[in-house]
Specification:
By secondary structure, the protein is α/β, with parallel strands linked by helices. A six-stranded mixed sheet has the order 3-2-1-4-5-13, with helices on both faces. Strands 6-9-11-7 form a four-stranded antiparallel sheet, sandwiched between helices. The radius of gyration is 22 Å and the shape is globular. The structure holds uracil. The site of uracil has 7 residues, from helix 9.
């Protein structure tokens, strides 16, 4: 078999066989197929696409290119959750303890933040001592004992995807549905959970700007998961404005804790209840969505979800006192209010700009190696549909550098559009694909 012939075949719009896809993925992972040939193949796929069977074979080939995590040592149904990423997305921090306190095992591999979106691992590291570099045995043991464990992605997880994603990133070949779906799902399949609940975000702060594209991605991923024998569902959720009010690592941990204390923002709480209900159904801890929601609400009201978060933090080396006394979380030294320049209604917030403001303050990474400042970020006071009077505080900035704070303030002001008419608030849940 020759890579050259496979490129020609794809260019002509013909489907690649399973053997051809495995040949290509294995050869590329081992360095036998050069970047320039793989780039040509990726571009051909962007132009002519892949069918459902090819997309599945590509996913499997990438999943099996490295270590497959075996979670057989964990009793019961293991459910994983994945978000395609957004601004202020602290969902896993509240959702995992809610679900685990209802009896469903959460075994999750998470990533770090890159660009304007944050990562669960960075957020958790705001808690003194918390570690995600645990080995597989500890991970399995913690899921069995506590009900939750979150670890960083091992370097052996789907290495073909790692290499291919880096190539796609610099060859303008990221935005193909089959390539995105197979990339995400290869890592999910290699992570070993029995069921997968996906949160596919859409809007100005998301990877998928258009709702139709997000729905198509959700559907492609659900098909892959089901074909792999995993119970898979996807929730399509709104990312036209940040989720909740807080953006920034420690600030988001605080908002997750507030939510588990029953004082969470409506949109964030609703997202946790929707995703959580689906996780309880997948984990067979509830028979109907209503029953699942009730259990999750009770897990908050009874304090069980909060104490589950504390146990999870302790099991991974963190100080559980941070959960009961969130004032212990890292705090920035500077603070500034962003003031409304005129009266009206918030019509729009350019969501990725809010993420970029957090990045400017030092809360995000511009390269994989960047050090991040866990204490900085933004607290929004006004969101879409809210009335503002001239002089009102629209947001607060938390920073450790005057210059950065000034730049972030200017950009945040530009991210807001204030209009005369009350703008309609889009619901946070836009649909479910199962
Ligand atoms: N995230 C991934 O992991 N892969 C993609 O291709 C796009 C987003």
């Amino acid at each position: 078999m020759r890579m050259y012939d496979l490129i020609v075949k794809k260019k002509q719009g013909l489907p690649l066989s399973k053997e051809e896809i495995y040949f290509m993925v294995e050869g590329y992972t081992k360095g036998e197929i050069p970047d320039y040939q793989m780039s040509a193949m990726m571009m051909a796929i962007c132009f002519v696409g892949m069918d459902e069977r090819e997309t599945f074979d590509l996913t499997y080939a990438m999943a099996y290119s490295g270590e497959m995590l075996h979670l057989d040592g964990i009793e019961g149904i293991k459910v994983d959750k994945h978000s395609t990423g957004g601004v202020g997305d602290k969902t896993s921090l509240a959702l995992a303890p809610m679900v685990a306190s209802c009896g469903v095992k959460v075994a999750k591999m998470s990533g770090r933040g890159l660009g304007h979106t944050g990562g669960t691992i960075d957020k958790l590291e705001s808690i003194a001592g918390f570690r995600t570099d645990i080995d597989t045995d500890t991970f399995i043991d913690n899921v069995n004992r506590v009900g939750i464990a979150i670890m960083g992605q091992t370097k052996d997880l789907a290495p073909a995807d790692k290499k291919l994603y880096a190539l796609r990133d610099v060859t303008a070949t990221v935005d193909n549905l089959s390539l995105i779906a197979s990339s995400i799902m290869s890592k999910k399949l290699a992570s070993g959970a029995d069921a997968i609940v996906l949160d596919v975000k859409t809007g100005s702060g998301a990877f998928m700007k258009k709702e139709a594209d997000a729905r198509a991605l959700a559907s492609a991923m659900v098909k892959i998961g089901k074909r792999a024998g995993k119970n898979t569902i996807a929730v399509v959720s709104n990312m036209d404005q940040p989720l909740g009010y807080n953006v920034g690592n420690a600030l988001e941990v605080r908002e997750a804790i507030d939510t588990l204390n029953g004082k969470g923002p409506d949109d964030f709480t609703e997202l946790c209840l929707t995703l959580g209900s689906r996780m309880l159904l997948c984990g067979e801890a509830a028979e109907t969505e209503e029953e699942a929601r009730e259990k999750l609400i009770k897990s908050i009201e009874s304090g069980m979800a909060l104490s589950k978060l504390a146990s999870f933090v302790k099991a991974q080396g963190g100080d559980p006192l941070y959960i009961y006394e969130p004032d212990r979380l890292p705090k920035a030294s500077l603070h500034k209010s962003v003031i409304a320049p005129r009266s009206g209604y918030v019509e729009k917030i350019v969501c990725d700009e809010v993420g970029i403001c957090s990045l400017i303050l030092g809360g995000g990474r511009t390269t994989k190696e960047s050090e991040i400042d866990l204490s900085v970020g933004i607290r929004l006071h006004k969101k879409v549909g809210d009335m503002v009077d001239e002089g009102d505080v629209m947001a607060e900035l938390f920073a450790n550098d005057e210059e950065k704070m000034k730049t972030a303030e200017e950009r945040l002001l530009l991210a807001y559009t204030i209009g005369a008419e009350k703008a309609e608030k889009k619901p946070v849940i836009l649909g479910v694909v199962d």
